[in-house]
Each structure stands twice: as structure tokens, then as C-alpha cells.
Amino acid sequence: MIRVRVPATSANLGPGFDAIGVALSIFNEVWVEESDKKLEIEIFGEGTDKISKDENNLVYRSFCKVFERVNKSPKGIRLVLKNEIPLSRGLGSSSAAIVAGLVAGNAYLGFPLNSEELLRMAVEIEGHPDNVAPALFGGVTICTQTPKLRCAKLSVPDLDVVLAVPDFEVKTADARKILPKEVPFEDAKANIANVAFLITALCTKRYELLEIGMQDRLHQPYRSRL
């Protein structure tokens, strides 16, 4: 049996829109083993009554993507999902499912793909790297897709994270739809400076700089309406 443990993530960290994410100490776990049936899925914890238990399951779909990449097909599979990450609360539940499926599939096949290939596949499925990267690598990650996918990992700062989990759901599609196509130049300039303060605070442990380094003018003001 293969066991995979994937953390929740917080992306768009401060001013790091679509770029900076951090892994958190909340985890989803997945167990995979062979089965006489084509597919069996059991789910415990978060999303038990919402997550599909058929071939549309995101963990299973991601698991199968690894087989497709190496020109193979999965046989009978049993998945057991134990979820701690709340759904649609900005904690990367879909990214955790994607990474869990990819990592499990890679392990199941004897690790034919390296971590960079898994990251590229995760981004292909999710559409952006800021959640899947810290889910895959842990710690704080900085990513870009311009002009090509690149990712760097920072050492994990010795900080405690306090989460405020809302009692309502916000879909990723809705959170992206509300953003403007253009932003004022002054807002873009301010965010560049704020990102510099954020990275400086994390790398030098000058945490008093987080007061500036966590301020954003590109996405938080617009999404506060949701």
C-alpha cells in the first residue's frame, strides 16, 4: 500500500499574487492499493458528501495522468482519502488532491518522473503554480510562468500561522473572475516594493517588516467583496 500526505497551502501570499505560496500544517492523506474492482474510493473527513467517488474524483484523475504520461493504464485501484483541508476556503484543497494523485501515481509506477515533471503536470491540471508548488515541495515557494515555469523554495520560517477559515465557500473561478484586467500603475509599483519586504522578512527573520510585506493592492481589495 502507498501512503501520501499533502499539506494545505495558502497562496497569493500578501502581495505575491499568483507567485508566492506557503505550506501549512493541515494535511490530507491518501492510501492507494490494488483492487479486484476497477475503482473503489472511500472518503473520510472534509468533503465526504461533496467529493465524487467515481472516475471524476480529482485525486484519481491526477493519479491516472501519471499513467498517461508513461503510456500505461491503471488496473483495479482502491483509494482511501482522509481529508483535513476544508473545501473552497482558500487552503488549496484542489491542489492537495492534484499533488496527492500525481505523487501516488508516480510512486505506484516506481518513480518514473522527477519533481520538476510532477510540478509541470500539476500546473497543467490546476492552471497556476502558487498552490501546487508548496503542496509538492513544502515551505515557502516562489513561482513564475513567464516566460516559462520556474520555482524556487525558501527555508521554512519559524513562524506560527493563525488561520481564519470563513463559514462560506468562495470558488476559485469566482475569485479570479472579479479581478480587473488592468490595474493602476501606482498599485503595481507598490506591490513590487511590498514583495521585496516580504521576502526580506522571511529570509532575514526581520518579522517586523511583515506589516509592510503582507500588504497587497492587486487582488485583496477586489476579492474582499466576495
UniProtKB/TrEMBL annotation:
Keywords: Amino-acid biosynthesis, ATP-binding, Kinase, Nucleotide-binding, Threonine biosynthesis, Transferase
A GO BP entry: threonine biosynthetic process
Annotated EC: 2.7.1.39
SUPFAM superfamilies in the cross-refs: GHMP Kinase, C-terminal domain (SSF55060), Ribosomal protein S5 domain 2-like (SSF54211)
Reactions performed catalytically: L-homoserine + ATP = O-phospho-L-homoserine + ADP + H(+)
Tree of life domain: Bacteria
A GO molecular function held by the record: ATP binding
Gene3D superfamilies: 3.30.230.10, GHMP kinase, C-terminal domain
This protein's pathway: Amino-acid biosynthesis; L-threonine biosynthesis; L-threonine from L-aspartate: step 4/5
Domain GHMP kinase N-terminal: 57-139
InterPro entries linked: GHMP_kinase_C_sf, GHMP_kinase_N_dom, GHMP_knse_ATP-bd_CS, Homoserine_kinase, Ribosomal_Su5_D2-typ_SF, Ribsml_uS5_D2-typ_fold_subgr
Family stated for the protein in its record: Belongs to the GHMP kinase family. Homoserine kinase subfamily.
NCBIfam families given in the database record: thrB (TIGR00191)
Family annotation (PANTHER family): HOMOSERINE KINASE, HOMOSERINE/4-DIPHOSPHOCYTIDYL-2-C-METHYL-D-ERYTHRITOL KINASE
UniProt-listed HAMAP family: Homoser_kinase
Name of the protein: Homoserine kinase
Organism of provenance: Pseudothermotoga hypogea
